[in-house]
Every structure is written in C-alpha cells, then in structure tokens.
Amino acid sequence: MEDDRVEALFAGVEYDIMELRMREPLMQRLMHEMKTHLVDKFEELVAKQPKKPFLIYDDMIYTYKAVDDMACRVANIARSWGLKAGDCVAIMIQNEPSFVYTFLGLQKLGIVVALVNHNLTAHSLVHSISAVDSKALIVGSGIELLDAVIDVLPNLGKLPVYVQGVSQQNLPVGLTSFDDLMRDAFPLAFSPSVRSGVTLTDTCCFIFTSGTTGNPKPVYITHSKCLRNSFFPAFLINHNRDDVMYGVLPFYHSSGLFLGIGATLLAGSCLALRIKFSARHFWTDCRKYKVTTFAYIGELLRYLVLQPKSELDGVHNIRAAIGGGLRIDIWNEVKERFKIPRIAEFYGATEAYSALNSFTEKPGAVGRLSPLLRKFDPDKKMLVRYDVETAAPIRNEKGRCIPVKVGEPGLLISKVPDDLLNKKLYKAHSKETEKKFIWDVFVPGDVYMNYGDSFVLDKEYFVYFHDRLGDTFRWKGENVSTKEAGDKIGLLPFIEDVSVYGIPMPGHDGKAGMAAISLSPNARLDNKELQEMYAHVFKELPSYARPLFIRHIPMQILTGTFKNKKGDLAKEGYDLDIVKDPLYFLDHENKAYSPLTKVKLVKFMKSKL
C-alpha cells in the first residue's frame, strides 16, 4: 500500500518539472503586465507603434493610430452625454472594428462596458440591458440587430439607443444614429487622469453567462481579471508582437474578448477579423492575412474537419492554436490534417478566477492536477465526488468534500482566496453567483467555487473534460440555460410543464436541446400547436437555445425536492427503439415541430443542425 502511494505521488513527475520551469518566467512577465489597465496598454502601443496594423477586416487594414482616432471620437461622444468613470454603457456589436474602437473609447473614460450577446431578442435582450443599470445602448450595424432592438424599444423606457451603420434619416423615431455623431466628433485625446480613480479591482466590463434563473446573468470582470485572462496566449503559445491572431470567436464571450482583443493588445500584435465564423472561408482568410495564431472552441474545429479535404489544408503560416473543448476523437486529425505545430488547450469559467492550462500536447487533456503541482497552486484546484442529479458535492460523515480517485469523474472546484472574499466585488456578486460558492470544503471556514463541470484524471494526473452538469448545457459554442428555455416554452397555453435538457449528438460537440413537455388538461398536440410551438421558440429564444427535439410525456417525473428529474430522459434521448412517447423534431421545411421517424431522423442528422 505504501509503495502504491509513493508511485502515485511521482506519477508524471517529468511533466511537473517541465511545467514548473515554464511557469516561472511567464508568471514574472504576467506580474509586470498586471500593473496597468488594458486601455493604458493600448495607448502605450499607439504612441510606440502608431503605423503598425492593429486590425484587418474585410481586406482593410486599421493601424493602431487609426483605431485610436475612432476610439477618441467615441470617448468624446460619451463625455458629451455626461458619462463618467464607473457608469455603464451596453454595447451589442458583432465582430467588426466598431466593437474594438467602441469598447476602447468607453474604456478611455473608465466607463464599464456591458457586452450584450447580439443573438438575443425579446425578454432576454431587455433583461441583459437593464440588469447592469446601463446609461445607454450602442447597437452595431446589421438589420438583425436593428430589428431586435426595435422590437423591444417600448420596454427600454427612456434609455437612449444609438445605432451604428445607418444615418439618422433611415432610423425610426426613438433611435439615434451613432455614425452621425462619429462624423461630427473630434478625435481629441483625453488625459489618463480622467480614469485615475479606476483601480485594477474595479469592474472593466460585464460578460453575460446563461444563468440559472432563466435570464442571462452579468458577471463582473475586473481590470485585473481582464489582463490575466488576456495573457493566456502569451502564456501557452508565446503569442507575440510579430503574430497575426485570427479572431472569429464572438467578442461578447470571454474567449473572444480575452484571446482576441486582449491578447493582441498585450502583445502589440495584429488581429484579423471576420464578422462571423465561416468554415468555408477559414483557411482562405488565414492564408490571405498570413495568420500565425488563432483561438478556437471545440465546435469550430469540428466544423473545419467536416469540410471537404483539400490539398491546401496544410498550406498556411499558422504555428499555434489556443482554445478549449477540442475532444480527443478529432485532436490528431486536426493536428495532422491541418499541420498545426502546437495546440494549447485550457479550461476556464467566466465567473471563476482560476483555470486549467495544458503545457503539454496530450490529446484531449485540458491540464494536470498532480499532488506536486497542487503544492504550488494557490487556487488548490481539486476534483471531488458529486451528486449527478443536483451537481452538488457529496460530503463524508464529517461534512467534508471527498476527492476522487484516478478514473473517477469528479466535480471541479477551486479555492477562493481569503483576501478576495472581503472585497466589494464579491459582496456585489448576485445571489445566483454566490450559490456557486461551497463552504467548509476540507477544513472549517474554507471557501471553494463550484465550476459545474466534471472531469476525469488519468494515471499521470492529466485532466479530461467529462460532462457539463446542472442547469446548463453547451451547444453551438453557447451556454444554454435549461430554465430560460423551459420558461419560454412553458408560456404556450397548451403546455403545463416543461423539462429541458441536453443530449449528445454524433459528430457534434456539446449537447443539443430537447424538451419534454406535458400538456394542460384537455389540451391537444396537433399540427396547429406544433406550428405555434415552432413560431414561439423562434421568437423567444436565440437559435442555439431552440430545442431540436420535443418529447410529449404524460406527466413530469419529480425528485424528492420537487425538481424535474431529467437524468433518465436525457439518457434515452431520441432513441426511437427505447422512447415510446411521441417525439418531434425542429422541422424548418414545414415550419413546425414534426413527428420523428427513423427515416426522418437520418435525414435530419444529415442536415445543417
């Protein structure tokens, strides 16, 4: 037994030594970067390299000086509105240069920027804007964005709304052209003293997560956290001044903001943009713009693998990719087919202040959690046993959490530093965020954060993603709140109760949405209701949150605490050999949820989901 413990302690020790050697100089550099704000770094670069390309978009090159001129105009406009440091402005802009210069322009004044998901509509959009006490809303170009805002304008009260990409004469009453304001504004620079009172522990921006209340939840992102997370590409792939990063992940997400804009500014490099990810144009863009690094999520790489093979697949300048969610089943294919020298995986959560990083290219691994590395880890990350139904840690007879063994799925938790618990930021956290805190984990008084995801350790302590737990699942690169989707579907008068859950889909990362519905007394589920349900989810839910399948069950099965019991339903999924309840699929051709048969299922799986 003693020999087994010694062997376990030293398993993978060569990887421990390598990682510790790599960490030290990188951590020293990070500590140096953490002495300033991201916008300060931008202004330093403007002074140092004004003519260097900063952004490439639609074959146009924007230098650091050109972006600064636009950002200064934004700052002058915001100042004319009477805004000051600490005020909040919501922006809903796609991946285009206007997002970058609008964000940086507001940051010049110390204004907190709320990054609203541009896919949102209806109630979710209104909630996001109002949840952060926005003083104004700036909407990017695009008819879809404009239509979404016009639909909810009566619900925004007196909030001023400014629209990019259109002149005043083409806007309805109640909206103001931001382009007209930009045309008349001067690119005069502000002294950094206007934001001198903004500290690194103050809020830089809000990023919205799916939430467990049924509404998008704003997460406070401090200036220090923004800097720390933006350092990942330098930390893991040595992203530097000579690199060109390809940014196709949405900027309203942590990955898009930090690995795209943030990483570019910390390195003083160049960022090539596309307004929306396109698998067909990905490699063409990379070759055209001489891209050397790119950020990904697993779904993105799977879309690339599904493209027809080409003799040009490996013809590019890319030396490294960084991201999360690249599953082991396609890792080697991505690396070998596309000739990518280095792939760096990591795992993090928007609300958390710790992450898993993979310094070695172990296929599928997002990092390591060895006994030795834990000695040097201030966050004390750990995998513990959990209840599958509640996604909560299981306690032993002493009320303490139980670490898992090698090969056993465990819930990821990390220690909340004692000095951070008393800061105003954590006092300001919503009750929903505080629910992620776990108290008295291993000793009385310690506090850990529950990430809500489970992982597995191998014999060398490499960590592999296992499952997303609780009230959210991931589809098309987005986190879906099961409560939000269920609440919206439940508004239909013929539905009594709804359980929404995610189910695995062959050839896709994440899980697709499925809703088990029970009907109100005397209600029917005929063509009329199925068409109404289709129209309803298209109006009320963003595309990624619309259930692909509906299961009509007689009544909901409840747990002992009266929550919908979804585990067995999720396991059965859409298996027509097991499920005897009526099943329906999201039928775009007939604009309805249509009855699912084996023939239709095969055709549906081959369609663009």
Automatic annotation (TrEMBL):
It catalyses: tetracosanoate + ATP + CoA = tetracosanoyl-CoA + AMP + diphosphate; a very long-chain fatty acid + ATP + CoA = a very long-chain fatty acyl-CoA + AMP + diphosphate. GO terms for molecular function: long-chain fatty acid transmembrane transporter activity; long-chain fatty acid-CoA ligase activity. Residues 42-370 form the AMP-dependent synthetase/ligase domain. GO terms for biological process: long-chain fatty acid import into cell. InterPro entries: AMP-bd_C_sf (IPR045851), AMP-binding_CS (IPR020845), AMP-dep_synth/lig_dom (IPR000873), ANL_N_sf (IPR042099). It comes from the Eukaryota. Keywords: Ligase. GO terms for cellular component: endoplasmic reticulum membrane; plasma membrane. Belongs to the ATP-dependent AMP-binding enzyme family. This is Long-chain-fatty-acid--CoA ligase. It comes from Elysia crispata (lettuce slug). The lineage of its organism: Eukaryota, Metazoa, Spiralia, Lophotrochozoa, Mollusca.
